[in-house]
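Researcher: Before we compare anything, I want clean individual predictions. No alignment, no superposition, just each chain on its own. First chain goes here; please echo the sequence and then give the structure tokens.
Model: Echoing the first chain and its structure:
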Amino acid sequence: MKAGTATTRAQAEEAWAPVLAAAGAQGQELGEQILTMAHAIASNPLRGPLTDPNREPEHKAALAARLFTGRVDARVVELLQGMARGRWSRPVDLISALHDLGIQSILAGARAGGTLDDVEQEVFAVSRQVAANREIRQALEPARRTSTEARVRLAQRLFASRISHPAMTLVVWCVRHQPEVAVGGVPYNLRRVTELAAAMQNRVIADVVTAVPLTTRQQTRLRDILARRLGYDVELNLQVDPEVIGGVRVMVRDLVMDSTVRHSLAGLRTALTG
């Protein structure tokens, strides 16, 4: 991220923080409006005019006001005006920053309303179902034969009756947004939202792979060991894979701890053939 974009994003986050704190549980509604606004900007030829370095900052701020006054909360309009006045390396960086602010606002509002853990668990449950069901995963991924809105409607049919409105808003964002990563898509977005929610509660998510299911006692012991090592509360994402043969593989952010038999055999093969 170039300096101009980094500075503008940081300024927007700094300016938005006290507004969000004062909004309390209403932050969820503000976050939804930010995501809706970001989608409108991305879906129409608006990114260029709002980020054009050759236009006067106040002209871009005035354009933001004309576009969204009366359509979203005045605080959200003011947020966009401040961002439009800044310098962005690429027009898409404005959209990315709005996405982050929208997600953070929904989660902060849920925290203020005492429902953040519920929202996290609901998005996490959707993530698990998408990961486990290839048919659903493929149906929600971008494809020429389906439009983005058709995929959103499918997600709503699948999940809206089972999760809260804030969680569903986040799931819809996960379906709409195409991340700038080589391998991403809906599972990546769902995981990102879940990790942000966990971080707000001073927790990390650990992916744990074993050959057979862990007992409740083993889960508790592993959670305690990881918490002592990492300095955070730990939430386990348990997966069973008979191919690991035995032992356990734990992945937390960029940290991988692999004591599986499969890993040991692979190391032995490498040593013998190296």
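Researcher: Okay. Second chain, same rules.
Model: Second chain and its structure:
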Amino acid sequence: MLSRAIILLIAGQKYLAALGFLRIISWAILFSIMAWLFSDCVLIVVKRETLILRNTVMVALLNVGLNLVLIPLLSDQGAAISTVIVELSAMLLNYWTCRDIVNLIILNKDTCKNIFEVLVGCMGIVIVCGLCERVSNIFIQIVLAVSISGLVYVSILLLLRNQFLFKLVKQLKKK
């Protein structure tokens, strides 16, 4: 949400061409983290390392193939798109490999409710960041967007009575 402002603050106007790349590649982070969770926190724990290796080889081959096709066509945007597709594929392969274990958690009513609440909170962040784009000073825009977004996100989770946030608050009160 703040990619334009961050590029302007860190690098300046001449690097705004990287905006599309940054917006595309940021999705890869989400998929990469989920792929890591499935592999390192589930598959390794249950001794399925050979399946992780298989998935990694498949994804590496996909990465090479996509880069050979997309980079000549789309340059840095092609590399970003390739990275997102590869990370999504890694996440899906790792999920598929441990679905018998994680579906008990993912398909749980509480988990689905939590995901819904987080997505509603994210919509609040999108709205706040969109409104903050009207601030002309980039530094102030980023500070306002981050601080107000955080407050809005937590407020939404509180309003929706997010169980994980309430547990966190309870733990902090004990300390």
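Researcher: What stands out in the second chain?
Model: The CA atoms of residues 143 and 163 lie 28 Å apart. Additionally, The helical segments are 3-10, 19-43, 49-74, 76-106, 109-132, 138-159, 163-174.
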